[in-house]
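INTERNAL AUDIT FORM
Audit reference: QA-55
Scope: verify that the stored structure record matches its stored sequence.
Auditor: D.O.
Record contents follow.
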Amino acid sequence: MNVLIIGGGQVGEHLAKLMLENNLSVKIIDNRESIIARLKSKFPADALFLGDGTDTAVMEACGISGADVVAAVTGTDESNLVASTIAKFEFNVPRVIARVNNPKNEWLYNSNMGVDAAINQADIMSHLIIEEIDIKNIMTLMKTSRGKRSIVRVQVDEGARAVGKLVRELDLPHEALLIAIHRGDDVIIPRGGTDILAGDGILAFINDESRAKLNSVFCR
């Protein structure tokens, strides 16, 4: 999979590292010489491009026509929206993801602007802060830009109904999908025969209506 990242700041750099760790092909565009100079010690030279990520000529030079995903993660909403629109409608990129910097602008991040998924950092952080107040509550890690679904994390309490049961024995909401179980240093892909232990960290994909039911299964 080929990923083109527009914006080489902290978000873009971290995203690029994650992509490379997962054996994906990554290219980064940034219009700041200082940023490109800093990234040269961390990424291959042929993965870095100095230029305007909203310039079609620069995008073409970076091989956007072969990109499977474009992630517009600059520090300005205007640039991210322009880059997303060009990527989707000029180059027909299958998947376009964009960073929301100002929450007031989130309504602009939609399919009409070429955005398939919008990542609102302020919204994510606010959920994390609020929900960390009570660790028994489900913590939202990411909300989808369409619909009312989220990726959430919940820790299994001692004495919870799920403890000692197999996944197939759990009374899970129909709209809840278990993604992974963190147990110590291990990450377990949940199957029907996977057991649930106290202290397990559960990652799940749920809709808003499933939150209370999931909380009742894994929390005391």
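Auditor finding: record pair retrieved intact. The chain is about 25% helix and 25% strand.
Action required: none
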